[in-house]
Amino acid sequence: MTAVLDRAVAPPVLRRDRRRWAWGVGAGAVLLWSLAGAGLFSGDVVNPGGTAQFGRFAAAAWHPALDAQFLGVLARSALVTVAYAAAGTALALVLGAGGAVLVSRTTWGRRRAGWLAARGVLAVPRGLHEAVWGLLLVNVLGLDPWVGVLAIGLPYGAVTAKVFADLVDEVPSGAYRALRAAGAGRPAAALYGLLPPAAGGLLSYALYRLECAVRSAVVLGMVGAGGLGYQLALSFASLRWEQVWSAVYALSLLCLVADVAGRAVRRRLAAPPPSSRRDPVLTATVVGTAVLVGWSCWYLALSPASLVSERTTAQLTHVLGAAWPPATDGDLLRTIGVLAVDTVQMSVVAIAVALLGAVLLAGPAARPAGRSSLGRRVAGALVRGGLLLLRAVPPPVWALVLLFVLLPGVLPGALALGVYTLGVLGRLAAGATEELDPRPRAALTALGARPAGAWLYGVLPLAAGPVLAYALYRWEVAIRDTVLVGLLGAGGLGALLAAELATFDWAAATTVLAAVVVLTWLVDLASDRARAALR
Amino acid sequence: MSSRRAARSGGPGVQPLPSPLSRRTLLAGAGVALAAAVTGCGRSAAPTSPGPLHVGAIPDQDPEVLQRLHGTVADAMSAALDLEVAYTPVTDYAAAVSLFRTGDLDLVWFGGLTGVQARLQTPGAEPVAQRDIDRAFTSVFVVNAGTGLAPSGDLAALAPLRFTYGSETSTSGRLMPAWFLREAGVDPQGFPGGPGFSGSHDATLALVASGSYQAGVLNAQVWRSRTEEGVVDPAVVRYAETPPYSDYHWLLGPRAAERTGVPDLRDRLLDFFTGLPAGSPVLELFGAEAFVPVQAADHDRIEEIGRDLGLVS
Amino acid sequence: MPPTTGTVRVLGADPAALSGRERRRLRARVGTVHQSLELVGRLRVVHDVNAGRLAQWSAARAAWSLVRPLGLPEVLAALEQLGLADRAFERTERLSGGQRQRVAIARLLVQQPELVLADEPASALDPVLAERALTLLGEPALARGGALVTALHDLGLVRRHCDRVVGLAGGRVVLDAPVAALSAADLAEFYGTSA
């Protein structure tokens, strides 16, 4: 018997998972290449002379403009922003629910080609930033409020369709198959077998989307759609930082409300009260959301008629006529190629910065389970508040203020995007940390491990997977966002797009847009593969 | 800033608050079931005719002041013309051009280049008036004191510096300076690392002050007003000023007269603008002594230069 | 968790009265095998075992060990004794319940504590391994003059490995006797009360 235990065993060898190893080395190489592209290894990138300008921006955070008149303007603007966000999200959810059916694996079954094609179609609305949609739609719809609603609804709808489809596909399909086997039709089987288990995830995702929509509505406002973003853009144009900060705080407040509401509902969904009656909180949420959407449509005076009016058709014909065929001259294509490289490098640096920051801040930002000291709670609230501000300051503002202290090039844009993404990623990482099993870390503390050691062995291995997955997902978003920031100095495809649109060269703009879509799609593909390797 | 240029949307319900009238008008045709159910019906009313005059402006100086006080302009115009006037704030040059083309805006305060773009895209559009200072507008080249350059007329010395323009289609912050640079033998798209586009005149000043860009160019009116206010960073030095050119003007759309039911709309607008008494709040907002008549031909040179630099197609 | 009444003394010290650093030192002298194991499934076995040394390691050492495992001979020796050496570089989550239990014991062997607290350390092991595991758990503590405190349900194991038995029912001590003195009647009474 003891022979079993005493059996001589050849010493095992450490074998790395080749696929993950390859992805790791590849990611490191791409990061180095991107940093080199950002000029980090070739000469100065910092401009110390601009600290005074940057300081002026930062100092204004302590004394935002608080005069009654301006606050009144902000309050009214906030209503517009909320209305756009709510109506846009509602449209996105409707489109997403319909789209999810079209792109879910459950629908296509084994017909993989059809499924791939459906996903490919979704890449087009998803690949363009809301602001880009806004500027395209304004040429067709003019001053109609539909511009803002569609600009949020179309890209969000495509993302929502993909996420909803994934959520539904990931629900164990046993119940669905059992219903199908019992003779139920596909829709009925999905309604009874797939929807109920997926409903919680769907609802909490919808609320998450609402918070994103508030931030998008602000960016749309910056390109002219009214609301907080419009006020922010006006003050930003003449560098009235006190007013800019007031608008940023107002936006933070809106995001906070959306976030807190979403958190409450998610918690409610995770641990429903033990009663067979309807949960009053969830019922109130659903009713409240419906009222909010109704009010938004009324407040914005949305009319379906304007979508199909004669003028809309005429303008659509005009724009499409000018945009087709896309420009294909060699010079333009070469420029696009060069700028696409800039864009990728910018997004990689941005994600690396955001990931590093998120890993460092996720711990302090996470709400500890159980009781904790007052100091810890205050520190946590401060870090969370800081992250909220990072994502409430729109990326273009970050780009300008960072350009004060950095020399022009890819780096200011990349860092601007990086700090903004950190605001989002830090929150996601903190959420992932909160959901971790606390026991391994507690066990390590119990055997006397230092806090750093307990974190390295008890938290990091568990959190790394979800946080990296979030980072990869945000990478795809960052590629779209580069369009927003890449304008000052040397700015990737965004700058080119701006130039083509400023001169109304629609044919060239179409080519650039196509390039952005293809790039987003490629990054999506790479990020998808990398996430698969992580699992 | 960048976003404004990155993405020139204009805007839907661009007003911070939609005016009750336009809301009702639109709602009349509407039928958003949920909205009606929630907010109660019976808000619809027949659209009034003739329609209001839709006015918009892209201010270059102190945008937030003019845009937030747009009631002043709309009220003065409305009282003088006995016409309903709806002011639509616009932040973005290209969006304003598009909105003028689609007929959403009837009367727009355009820069020289954007006015030409709008006129070329909208057959029948006519310039109405411009400020006295717009007849001979100029741009100022500024450099960071660290460059050690003394004021001079020699633009060629700017070529080796990191240089930023203002907005992409700004006449005073891009088009005319680029033209004069080229006249001086400097490639306007050259400069180390390519030229930057700060997005606004104030941003140009701040960027040159920081030294991130060693030189830049901006609207002379903004330069003077900021100098008078004493807010220009001492690190920014005036280097050169361009020769004069014709810039901002009011442009009237072809369908405005018909829509508002005022056949001689252009003449009445011209009378209104040129008849504004000295010290009128409207003049003050626009930073002018008086408005003067303007003809399409006054901007022929801008059009030519725009074509030459590939900014007008 | 503070006691409701009285004081707690661990290896002669009151944990509540110690500073952070002293308490950590004390903790390092106490090894625990939890019933739910508290291992990190995503880590390789070698790291989960090495976690037993975190009390001694600086943060930098701990981090580097995640890249290139340190102290490999001790880890392999500990795993060898539990028949798991060949799985040292496997991800812990890929192991069976019994194997994971042995990883937890290996962690304890590497930690070398004076006092061992083990909550059913043999519940998922076959009889041979259970014997082995209890011997191993007791050894390091005995070598340093400490003790093994373990909760067991298998009376055979109790008789072979323990000196003293304390029976708990409803949170109260109802039985406390040297193993040698444990009679069938005692047991019958104990299980009668607890049933």
UniProtKB/TrEMBL annotation, chain A:
<dbReference type="GO" id="GO:0055085">
    <property type="term" value="P:transmembrane transport"/>
</dbReference>
<protein>
    <submittedName>
        <fullName>Phosphonate transport system permease protein</fullName>
    </submittedName>
</protein>
<keyword id="KW-1133">Transmembrane helix</keyword>
<keyword id="KW-1003">Cell membrane</keyword>
<feature type="transmembrane region" description="Helical">
    <location>
        <begin position="217"/>
        <end position="237"/>
    </location>
</feature>
<dbReference type="Pfam" id="PF00528">
    <property type="entry name" value="BPD_transp_1"/>
</dbReference>
<keyword id="KW-0813">Transport</keyword>
<feature type="domain" description="ABC transmembrane type-1">
    <location>
        <begin position="78"/>
        <end position="266"/>
    </location>
</feature>
<feature type="transmembrane region" description="Helical">
    <location>
        <begin position="189"/>
        <end position="208"/>
    </location>
</feature>
<feature type="transmembrane region" description="Helical">
    <location>
        <begin position="243"/>
        <end position="261"/>
    </location>
</feature>
<dbReference type="InterPro" id="IPR000515">
    <property type="entry name" value="MetI-like"/>
</dbReference>
<feature type="transmembrane region" description="Helical">
    <location>
        <begin position="482"/>
        <end position="500"/>
    </location>
</feature>
<feature type="transmembrane region" description="Helical">
    <location>
        <begin position="397"/>
        <end position="420"/>
    </location>
</feature>
<keyword id="KW-0472">Membrane</keyword>
<feature type="domain" description="ABC transmembrane type-1">
    <location>
        <begin position="340"/>
        <end position="527"/>
    </location>
</feature>
TrEMBL record, chain B:
<feature type="region of interest" description="Disordered">
    <location>
        <begin position="1"/>
        <end position="21"/>
    </location>
</feature>
<dbReference type="GO" id="GO:0055085">
    <property type="term" value="P:transmembrane transport"/>
</dbReference>
<dbReference type="Pfam" id="PF12974">
    <property type="entry name" value="Phosphonate-bd"/>
</dbReference>
<protein>
    <submittedName>
        <fullName>Phosphonate transport system substrate-binding protein</fullName>
    </submittedName>
</protein>
<dbReference type="GO" id="GO:0043190">
    <property type="term" value="C:ATP-binding cassette (ABC) transporter complex"/>
</dbReference>
<dbReference type="InterPro" id="IPR005770">
    <property type="entry name" value="PhnD"/>
</dbReference>
<dbReference type="InterPro" id="IPR030836">
    <property type="entry name" value="ABC_peri_PhnD-like"/>
</dbReference>
<comment type="similarity">
    <text>Belongs to the phosphate/phosphite/phosphonate binding protein family.</text>
</comment>
<keyword id="KW-0732">Signal</keyword>
<dbReference type="InterPro" id="IPR006311">
    <property type="entry name" value="TAT_signal"/>
</dbReference>
UniProtKB/TrEMBL annotation, chain C:
<dbReference type="InterPro" id="IPR027417">
    <property type="entry name" value="P-loop_NTPase"/>
</dbReference>
<dbReference type="GO" id="GO:0005886">
    <property type="term" value="C:plasma membrane"/>
</dbReference>
<dbReference type="GO" id="GO:0016887">
    <property type="term" value="F:ATP hydrolysis activity"/>
</dbReference>
<dbReference type="Pfam" id="PF00005">
    <property type="entry name" value="ABC_tran"/>
</dbReference>
<keyword id="KW-0547">Nucleotide-binding</keyword>
<feature type="domain" description="ABC transporter">
    <location>
        <begin position="5"/>
        <end position="195"/>
    </location>
</feature>
<dbReference type="GO" id="GO:0005524">
    <property type="term" value="F:ATP binding"/>
</dbReference>
<protein>
    <submittedName>
        <fullName>Phosphonate transport system ATP-binding protein</fullName>
    </submittedName>
</protein>
<dbReference type="GO" id="GO:0022857">
    <property type="term" value="F:transmembrane transporter activity"/>
</dbReference>
<keyword id="KW-0067">ATP-binding</keyword>
<dbReference type="InterPro" id="IPR003439">
    <property type="entry name" value="ABC_transporter-like_ATP-bd"/>
</dbReference>
<dbReference type="InterPro" id="IPR017871">
    <property type="entry name" value="ABC_transporter-like_CS"/>
</dbReference>
<dbReference type="InterPro" id="IPR015854">
    <property type="entry name" value="ABC_transpr_LolD-like"/>
</dbReference>
